[in-house]
Amino acid sequence: MPELVDVEMVRRKLLRWMKGARVVAVHATDRYVLRPASPATFRHALAGRTVRGVERRGKWLRVELDGDLRLFSHLGMTGDWALCAVGAPRMPSERARLDLVRGGAATALRYLDPRRFGRLVAARREIPEWCALGQDPLTDGLTERSLRRSLATSHRAVKERLMDQTALAGIGNVLATEALWIARIHPRARSNSLTAVEVRAIVRALWTAIRRELRDKPEGVERRRAYGRAGRSCPRCGKTFARIVLGGRTTVLCRRCQAPRHSARGAGRA
DNA sequence: CGGCATGTTGCGCA
DNA sequence: TTGCGCAACATGCC
Fold first, then answer.
1. Catalytic residue among A3, A178, A198, A213
2. What pLDDT, on the 0 to 100 scale, is given for residue A85?
């Protein structure tokens, strides 16, 4: 469930469910998801507090509560928040639960995460992971100028740079793969070798991909053009999509549309 | 059974 | 010191 757009959807529903509500009880027993805090510390920090708002930067959520407390939530690969009835039986993938009261009505929210790559952190100040995040396209904006600056300072593969959360926050494998296909840029192209025209194409492609996911969620999966389509044909030119591994992550590309730019010195293989 | 997965971190080796 | 590949983390699905 975990890229900028998915996390933004979770933020919106959390805001709807939590804003103005008071946390009356906390059930949290999964030490792994709460790491390194103990469940007791976590419960104690949250109990009795009222939710003021829910923010997001990149793939991190920050629930603001009174008394200057913040609940940070990262969904990892399979995390999600869901509404349930107070006292509902625990689900196998349930890692934490907050019982809430708002205007006399009692509800509960549970954090579900079968794979447990996610994290929950209650803290009185910002956490390092949050502070290290780069610009978030939706909350901070994303322009040709800002992306050019961020790409120019790295010679790593452009796809890895786009997914570097300290450079640009929220871009994951889906958005990076989609955007580079739309922009017709080879994922292994050196970040700082891109021309102004190419950077502009990536900015536009990122917005196209983000907008498409925002609009189509959650059925939009089938509308993806490159991600998850290795072995099928490129909707633009018909050539079979190739699959490579870049930075340890599966990367799908069209070798015709996304051919490496020719370099006199003989540039990258892929 | 093996392979793969929307994420992050840490280790060992250039 | 920096950068990169790779394994690990824990679990489900095909």
1. A3
2. 96
